[in-house]
Fold this protein.
Amino acid sequence: MDVLGPFWTRVSAEVPLSLEVLAGAAVVAVAVVASPALWRPARTVVTIAHEGAHGLAALATGRRLAGIRLHSDTSGLTVSAGRPTGPGMVLTLVAGYVGPGLFGLGAAALLGAGHAVGVLWTVLGLLALLLLQIRNFYGLWAVLVTAAVVLGVTEWLPPAGQAAFAAVVTWFLLLAAPRTVLELQGARRRRAAPDSDADQLARLTRVPAAAWVGLFLLADLAALALAAWWLLLA
């Protein structure tokens, strides 16, 4: 307890965020998502969240997670074993494109409760779990670099700086999630993604892939709207 006490005090520290800081963090996140030069490297973070959501959903539905790969073109692959059809497979596929938005919504809830520092330690915990499932070198590098950045923030920035960084991460996930869905639809329109999550869901459920894309987008926009209300208006 003597060892865990100071650590828990640090992780659970309450750091209030002003409306100005939250709005400024949102502007920074918008700039990253909207800038082609910044979006390309930052998109790897969304891929980590996307594939991590697939993995969590697979485990939650009783499937056996066989490994996760992240690629330098910002694509990824999560392999799980179990029934090739049924609710478990459907939920595992759905989780990918709604995962980043839901992670962002959860982070917004922590921010709203004053636990901005806890957001960063939660991210580190999830990255550590993800690391155990990575099965390729680029994926290992991407997760380690992301974890190193977050860990560096927790070590070198004061609590107020950590909280501001956590706010940027939160807004980034919330804003990036719908952009990736729009990119998915663009790729499908060009017939460049025949095996996308939406197309696999269409084959499993006989619900058109476009309907699944619409569901992904609606879920991500709803997460963004709810988080914005919590953080800026409530």
User: Anything to note?
Assistant: The chain is about 75% helix and 5% strand. The first strand starts at residue 64 and ends at 70. Residues 159-189 form the longest helix (31 residues).
